[in-house]
Amino acid sequence: MGLDLGLERAGFDIKLACEIDRYCRETISLNKPDIPLIGDITGYSAAQILQAAGLTGSDDIDLIVGGPPCQAFSTAGKRNGFHDQRGNVFLTYVDLVLTLKPKYFIIENVRGLLSSPMKHRPHTLRGPAYPDLALDELPGGALYFVLDTIKKAGYAYSFTLYNAAHFGTPQIRERVVIVCSRDGKRPPYLQPTHAQSNAMGLPPWRTFREATADLAEHHHIDFPEKRLIYYRMLKEGQNWRALPEDLQREALGKAFFAGGGKTGFLRRIAWDKPAPTLVTHPAMPATDLAHPEEDRPLSIEEYKRLQEFPDDWQVAGPLLEQYRQIGNAVPSSLGLAIGRLVISLLRGEPYQEPASFNYSRYRNTNDALWIQQFERMQRGRVEQQALF
């Protein structure tokens, strides 16, 4: 509901919510009992969705917003793209939206969408002895297919990888947001409100201290004692690398020999920076989220502040389910930025696209650069095939 809360802050009236998860549904009902709620989107036609929202075929929908299940595209773990059932939900969402024909619609997803293939070929079946990757097997093939579908339906679009910290969220959280417009005019990028280094004269990113220092009550899970031994040696902003060298291998165990930076192991959050990306469990060894000073994981109350839910927001289910729900949410301020953009476009108000603002720390993540990169890769594949 983070997106929804942000849209409401911008001035939108939510006509219908869609959620399949049991505990998320309970949470929505607890906090927004007046909003109609449907379940598995694959079980509904466009006509049934209109009926559930109290609308008719003659009503012109201003905006549809969706974050179809992102695990199929996650950069962590397997990358099955649209061959994953959750990827099929993604396509169902796009098909329904194009049938409903809103003035604007939004697709929100994880960074992995930018590089997920339409069809995954196992690495054991790649190399000189095997055929080159087909178009639908190329990195980014899933997104390219979706964008082509949107374009053929007459919609224009823009997208980039947005860091929610640029919109006032006290957390580093990156999400791909695709804004699609029925009028065929490319929508501008979202207007940032904060910056890391005083870019455009904007105020600095909000910090963990600003967001949470006044909290008095905390409900949280606990770290096992064998990890608390090491946490008691660490100061705010530090991780396992700050331990004495002779203890680093002992603290990490087998993970010590794994690749990567391992920055999430035994990690205390810094007071005066945005929090790292919230995960669905704050005490998993590789993605620890420990309080700057107290020997505990972040609390549910801190999770809510960092995702910008109201303090009185009720979260259904046992503690671990509450972490999962809030950790999977979209920060409210990102929803607010989306809402402000769309309302400006609906009203025909001038909206100045930020010039040369560095939204992301990664390369080729906006629509223009990403498409250029994908089409170069596609041409290279065709040229290579022509040599044989």
From TrEMBL:
Show the GO MF annotations. Answer: DNA (cytosine-5-)-methyltransferase activity; DNA binding
What keywords appear on the UniProt entry? Answer: Methyltransferase, Restriction system, S-adenosyl-L-methionine, Transferase
Keyword S-adenosyl-L-methionine (UniProt): yes
Q: Which reaction does it catalyse?
A: a 2'-deoxycytidine in DNA + S-adenosyl-L-methionine = a 5-methyl-2'-deoxycytidine in DNA + S-adenosyl-L-homocysteine + H(+)
Which EC number applies?
A: 2.1.1.37
Residues forming the catalytic site? 70
Family affiliation: Belongs to the class I-like SAM-binding methyltransferase superfamily. C5-methyltransferase family.
Protein name (record): Cytosine-specific methyltransferase
